[in-house]
Amino acid sequence: MALSKTQAVVLRTRDLGEADRLVTLYTLEHGKVGAVSKGARKARSRLGPVIQTFNHLNLLLYKGKSLYTITGADLIDGFPLLRGDLTKMTAASYITELVERTSEEGDPDQEVFYLLVTSLHLLVEAGYERQVTWVFQLRLLDRLGLAPRLDRCQCGRKADMEGRRPVAYDPAAGGVLCPRCGRGPTLSREALRALYGLQTSPVEEALSLSVGPGVADDIDEFLHDYVVYHLGREPNSLRFLRELWGMRGGEMCENTKEGG
Ligand SMILES: [Zn+2]
User: Does residue 143 sit in the same domain as residue 198?
Assistant: First the structure.
């Protein structure tokens, strides 16, 4: 049977031919796949309005020789609040771009799927976009077997979490470096402690992390260096996101979620 039912998130869409849309999906059952939505750009298309970037859907897919065809779609969540906010939109673009770039076609990973869906929900819910991207990047790197090693150097020496001096790191060496093992860009100890907390705490706790702007910039810089090293280049959406955050100047990066 070439028909399958699956949940999916739309990572990217582009126009195809006169009226079709070519869609990159991350599906629960098949991982990343390319699919055609026939006639999606026609005014009366039933699927057209539903097949939009970031949408979480229930899909009916028909498997062709190289591509899938979307034969049915039901919207689970369209994240409308995401679309009215430039920072949230850009953070969501970065998250979907990272999933697209780090996944292989037809190689499903349910944890990545749920991490993606959860992160989109968290971006919508409150004003802590930066923490959501931190947690997402660390969880995704971990899932890919690329988690930065923060508590010890490659030689086995333990990192001094309570120290004061900045600590060197090198993505090529897999994490932080002791003074004997080398030099590299540096991370403040406060940022190192924050990153270690983000990496080892449950998501809810990680999201409540409150740090000053200098520490937030350090965390961004560290994760940026890791992602760029492993992808081989800077994702477009990450560059834009960093510009947006840079423009906020000295604003405190605090968790603004209210109540519990
Ligand atoms: Zn060392």
Answer: yes
Tell me: do 171 and 241 sit in the same domain.
Answer: yes
Q: What average pLDDT does the segment 231-245 reach? A: 91
Whether residue 224 sits in one domain with residue 144: yes
If we measure between CA atoms, which residue out of 83, 187, 198 comes closest to residue 136?
A: 198
On the 0-12 / 13-18 / 19+ scale of CB atoms within 10 A, 142 is middle
Calculate how far, in angstroms, residue 166's C-alpha sits from the geometric centre of ligand 1: 15
| Residues 161-172: tens digit of each pLDDT | 888 899 999 999
Give the count of beta carbons closer than 10 Å to the beta carbon of residue 30: 19
The boundaries of the domain holding residue 28 are 3-78
Q: Give distance in angstroms: CA of 180 to centre of ligand 1.
A: 5
Q: Indicate if 74 and 87 belong to the same structural domain.
A: no
Going from the Cα of 125 to the center of ligand 1, the distance in angstroms, rounded, reads 41
**Do residues 192 and 150 lie in contact, with contact meaning Cβ atoms separated by under 8 Å?**
yes
